[in-house]
Task: structure prediction
Amino acid sequence: MAPPLLLYAGRRPLQAVPLVLVIFLINFTLIQAAPGDPIDFLLGSSDATEEYIAQLREEFGLDQPFLTQLLAHLGKVAQLDLGYSLRFREDVLTLILSRRPATLLLMGSALVVASLLGVLLGAVAARRPYSLTDNAATLLALAGYSMPVFWLGQIMLLVFSLHLAMFPTQGMMSLRAPREGIGMVLDVAHHLVLPVATYSVYHLALVFRLTRVKMQETLALDFITTARAKGLPESRVVYGHALRNAMLPVVTVIGLNFGFMLAGSVLTETVFAWPGTGRLLYDAIGPRDYPLLMGLFTVLSVMVILANVLTDIIYALIDPRVVYR
Amino acid sequence: MHSSIPVSSTAETAVPPAPSAWRIFRRNRAAVVAAAVVVLLGAFALLGPTLVPFDPSRTGVGPSMAPPGVPHLMGTDELGRDVLSRAAGGLRISLLVGLSAAGAATLIGLLVGGTAGFFGGLIDDALMRVTEIFQVIPRFFLAILLVAFFGAGLANIIFAIAILGWPEVARLVRSEVLTLRNRQFVDAARIAGASRTALIAGEILPNAMGPVVVNTSLLIGQAMLLEAGLSYLGLGDPSVVSLGVMLQEAQQIMRSAWWTSAFPGALIFLAVLALNLLGDGLNDVLDPRARER
Result:
């Protein structure tokens, strides 16, 4: 018999299948329910010949009954056909995939920065609750929480790019920078600083607040008293014993906030003209490129659902108390 | 030793009087300041548009992109419109969207969570499954799709933001109702012959409202941030000016006119921060567990 953890890791993704179907259903219902002819949505504001319109009508089976249309739609999605972007004149899925690396670089860097700093600051603050350090950090975290992320980006641009001229204002690479080797890495890193600083603030605040609360709870537990009674140095008690336990919920929160992280990436990428999927979404909104909008919604939703599944499995791996169902 | 313990002849002398709500609230100094800021901003949004010296939509009331000074305290934009006058109207729209969307989300959440918690069983399972689905799908993107497809009217924007907020309210209300449903005072009302509606409306909901009120205060702030985000992406109502719309316009010209971005953004920041701090203070008053501290 397979160990329960393996069974769970095999079964958990299956539970996500109905959710993915719901996403497809939402997309389909939107085209049907929106005011006006679905053809208008597929074409957007572009000029199209009568022949092309007739071809689209035929292709999408718009004269067919509702259920037939739905099945045809699902069939297309199953073949990874997400439609054709009218603005970029390119296959939607190809377009989205070509923008993934930039977004992953931005999100990954921000996630590392926010998690490390957030956990560290949270642990430090929890050692002396309601001290000056703790109160200042708590207020700063609340401020990070309450700020429109794109406004923070604008202010960063104003101060560090335009006033102090320390960083480039937009994009991921300079025009004349080398396209390979260490020169390219340095150039991209230089462009990365401001977007990452902007983007990580919200998550830093989130991770900080959670770590602080969990650390306070953990430091009051019996096994901490035992560790202290054994004569362990205080720093080992706090960072070796308590922090390891307090970090479990932090892992979950990072995973479950993936959707909000993606939302933040759209706004950040828009401010800094960062060439990722978020900026792509912004570019699709202006001309109302509906196939691209729906394609992005589908791909991003599937990613969020996968992130949730992964979070659950990772949590089961690192927390021995989880009961697999 | 015994004599030092007051022997109670009546119940009141033994129990110290519960501190009044205001006295508990007052202990949280940040929340008191935040409440004052909320009141001030509310007054500015309500009265400001009639008090400001310039017509917010008229172009050329000053030079193009004049820096802050007299008479344009927050400067002017590229069309020579007064930023302060526009910000007053913008704050009004942003607060209006925040209040309506948070109110709608709370209402949906009360309805769904209350029904699920009170009736339990199959109804509970079905409603909670729907709630879970809404929690997992990326709601910000759903809001973008809804507004892009159905048009960027104020009502659509409010509706799209409400869709983002209700699932958490529903779960909160459900868990409150579940713990209240079997409490003695509810049993007492039931035995006394109260109808189901009377039980929910008269006994359970009023006692579940504390955390809901706190959550609504936080939701208003979140809704304001979301409205700003949607407007920034070009999904604001084109017929009104919100603070988010001002920030979107500022993106093009802030290189030469920082004030077009700094002031409207600072207003949103201040309002949301104050609402979050106010929520903290309300939590002290309304959560009986926090009250004992």
About this structure: Chain A has one domain: 92-324.
